[in-house]
Amino acid sequence: MVKKLFEVHEKTASLLQVNSILFLLSGIEAWLSIYDNGLQLQFARDPSVVLFYPIRSLVYCASIRFATRTQTGAEFPNGWRFVPLDSPAAARVENTRNPPLFAVTFRRTRHLPVDECHCFVTKTRQAALALVQACFSAYQGTVPQQDCSKVPLYFKVKSKIESLY
Fold first, then answer.
1. How many alpha carbons fall within 13 Å on the CB side of residue 47?
2. Which domains does the chain possess?
3. For 102-140, how does the pLDDT look when each residue is reduced to its tens digit (9 = 90+)?
4. Nearest to 121 by CA among 5, 46, 25
5. Is the pTM for the entire model greater than 0.85?
6. For residues 104 and 124, what is the distance between their CA atoms, to the nearest angstrom?
7. Distance between CA 41 and CA 33 in Å, rounded?
């Protein structure tokens, strides 16, 4: 069943094996842009819909990799862990088959006020590290009074950007 699902969703899915259990992972293809005042998420399936997160709504971001081995080659006590990309464990041969990830958490204030988490698979380690650096630089350059009362902001892109909400 997992193999059949993987064949159907081959372009947007990947298989992950943890302790002899196969997981089918699928995602949504999207473009992530980082600006001086926030992060913009645009979906490939419908590029006219844009989500914008003001940079001051950023709670946490990291460049990470899924790992099953420590820097010494031993297994992690629970079998796996997400490790920082610049850690020795992320560079172990057994762990490098897993792609680099950029993880980000925002404080959502629209609808239900909770933390909203996103994870992006990047093509290279350098890309994930650069995304963290860009977020850091943008966050450092804004004023604490930035309006985060409606996060995320939803837009519909036509000939000009119009706010949906």
1. 4
2. 2-152 (2.30.29)
3. 999 998 877 778 888 889 989 899 999 999 999 999 999
4. 25
5. no
6. 17
7. 7
